[in-house]
Amino acid sequence: ANDWLPLLMVDGHGLDAAVGSLVFVGFAAAMTLGRFGGAFFLSRYSRATVVRASAVSGAIGLCLVIFSDNAVVAAAAVLFWGLGASLGFPVALSAAGDSGPDETARVGLVATIGYIAFLVGPPTLGFLGDHYGLRPAMLVVLAFVATAVLAAPAAGTRVSARGSSGAGRGTDAAGADVPDPPALRS
After folding, report:
1. Distance CA 81, CA 72 (A)
2. What is the pTM (predicted TM-score) of this model?
3. Reduced to 3 states, what is the DSSP secondary structure of residue 3?
4. Which of 120, 125, 146, 151 is the most exposed place for a label (fewest CB within 10 A)?
């Protein structure tokens, strides 16, 4: 979205360039709102639930942007896409740091995957958009978002890395110690 959304709205939905840019502002605002409001939901629901809900929101927004011929519907759908995209990367980093020993390696791997996607994704979408159009190119993004819906349970597991003194305990969203569910105890 950061690289192709305004052009997608102009070329794919026939909006004026200024309006296409305003649609991107709406996406960025929805993403910002999702990041700031995410802590509220993460403190009340599991990470897996929040990731799944975010991915579903992003998928709904993307489907409407890709398949709707109504420019107003597509522009409004960008808000769902922005909300859905807001928490995926930060929650994945958090889950990587909480999921077992060698937190640094896991967080580094998730960050590397995220930044490779950030570098490889836009040119790939541009290539596909040049050959097939930007709306069909966004099907690749939709496929990855749909994968996030299926992979969401992986974000919900927390394993304490504190050793025997902290065995059977984890932390909640505010950092307070809480017992791990019996299924996670060793």
Report:
1. 14
2. 0.77
3. coil
4. 120
- Is the residue at 114 inside a domain? yes
What's the pLDDT score for residue 179?
A: 46
**Residue 22 within a domain:** yes
| H or E, element range at 123 | helix 103-132
The 3-state DSSP composition of the chain as helix, strand, coil percent (nearest 5) reads 75, 5, 20
Domain containing residue 63: 5-157
Number of domains in the chain: 1
Q: What is the pLDDT of residues 164-178, one digit of tens each?
A: 333 444 445 444 444
Question: Percent of the chain having pLDDT more than 90?
Answer: 61
User: For residue 186, what are the CA distances in angstroms to 56, 59, 93, 99, 168?
Assistant: 33, 37, 24, 14, 7
Element (H, E) at 170: strand 169-171
CB neighbour burial string for 110-148, b if at least 16 within 10 angstroms, e if fewer: beeeeeeeeeebeeebeebbeeeebbebbeebbebbbeb
CATH code for position 96? 1.20.1250.20
Has residue 185 been placed in a domain? Answer: no
Residues of the chain with pLDDT under 70: 157-186
